[in-house]
Structures are given as structure tokens and as C-alpha cells.
Amino acid sequence: MAKLSNENLFLMEFLVENLQIDKSDCNMPPGELCICFHFLDNTELDVCEHDFSPNKKFSPSNDNNRTGKSCLFSLTPPQAQAALQSFDLIVNVCKKMLPGYNPEKICMGSANISVVHMLSSLLQSNEETPAVKVLQESFQLMDATGRNVGTIGVYIRMSCYGKMIITQFQMNLDDKSVLFKDKEGRSLYRYKKSKKKGKATKIEDLSQNEQDCDPNCKTYKIVDQPPEQFVNQGPFSFGALPVVSGPGFGGPQSFGGPPSFPPPNPNCPMQPCFPNTSAAPEHA
Length: 284
Known about the structure:
Blueprint: E1 8-21, E2 31-39, E3 45-48, E4 67-75, H1 77-83, E5 88-97, E6 105-114, H2 116-124, E7 131-142, E8 148-162, E9 168-172, E10 177-181, E11 187-192, E12 202-205
Antiparallel strand pairs: 1-4, 1-8, 2-3, 2-5, 5-6, 7-8, 9-10, 10-11, 11-12
GO biological process, one term: cytoplasmic microtubule organization
InterPro entries: MAP10
Pfam family, one: MAP10_N
């Protein structure tokens, strides 16, 4: 395990897919239902009903229960060695009481999920970072007496980013747009927040946009397609860009290797311009 010789960054992501709690015979006071995730010595992460829109509550009859949270943390070599012996994700389903009630939180059920095999696979992996492992399964919820009180379906993704995460960006102070680059400095995407309230934010794929390129620089047309699904185009090979989801991501996301672009053209500081080759046709 070569990765054990260095401190590594990990990203743990949790998605609540479904929750089924058996009805209780006792009359429980009103409160908000929350799912609490805790692992190692990190801060507990809560996914509560207020994370959903009003029509998306925890209910077995509702298929829209999709929300989650993520935690970026580091492990030193000694910490990683200890985690390889025991690494459990503790999931508690609780009800947070309204102000004035005591206790403030009532635990309805819990589950212990071992993720040590995910960590071990990541540390042994020879993949280029980020290396990713996924666990998608339903687990039994037990109360304090050991009685089965329901089930919870979770999607867990653990990623290893190595010693550091390197990105570049360039900001235009006039229109508040931000240009994102890969670690070699080649332009990838431009993010521009809309000035009009309620209008969608624009994310521009610079590998397909030629407006920022010098008119004297020859370029080649690339067929329009979703930015996260690059495929091979002629003589140039494009890889899928890594995507990291925040709260509310709706399902598994794919991770791939870094994108492969031609060398940047100094005449085009805002966009890579492709060199002229006989393998690709020119266009005006």
C-alpha cells in the first residue's frame, strides 16, 4: 500500500435513498425527522426534512427522497492504519423535538455500516486519483433493545484524492465570470452568474465555444454534447471530467481520468485552440 506512506485526502458522500420506520404504539410528540451520519472523530452530519422541498418528506410512498451531504477529511499514515482495523459508519435516525420538549432529540433506530473494505480498496488501488468506491445497499434499523424498527437505503461513495487537490481559476472582474482550468493551465469551463433574479446560472464549455479565440487561430468544430460526457473526437481524446456532488445530488456520478487536450495556443488565453493537422478538417 504505497498510499499509506503519505497523508491522503478523502471525500465521503452520503445519499439517503429511502427510509421505512415502523409505526410506534406510543404517541410521539411533533418534531423533525433527521438521519445522522458519524464516522471516526469527524463532526456528525445531519440530513433532515428541511433539506427537502415541502412535498419531499421521508415517506415510503414517496420516490423523491434524494438528498445527501459530503465530508472532505484527511488521514495520516497512523490514522489510516487504525482505520483499516475498524472503520464503521454509524447511522442514527432521530427525531429533533420542538423547543420546550425534553430531551431535545429522540433516537428511533440506528445501523452500523462497516466501510473498512472501501478504505482498504482505495489504499490498494493503482488508479489515478481520484480513486472511487461505492456502496449502495439497504440496512436494518435497530432500537436500543435490539428490536428491528425499519430499514434505510443509503448510497455511500468514498473517494481518495491523494496528497492534494490542484485546480486553477481566472476571474473576470467586469462580468464576475470565473474561468476554471486544469492543473496544466488549460481552459475547461467558464461560470457566469446571471444578473437577472431567477435566471439560471450559465456554465460554458470552452472546449466547444470559439467566441473567445483569436480569429487568426484555426480551430475545428466539435459536435455539441453534454459537458460531462466527452467522447473521442477525431485526433483528440477527451476524458470524462471528475464530478463531485454536493447536497441533493440525485444518484451515482462517474469519475474519470483527467481530460486530454492539445497543447494550449498562446494566442488564445481564454480557450485552447486546436493545431492544424491533416486529420481534421478546417472551418471558417
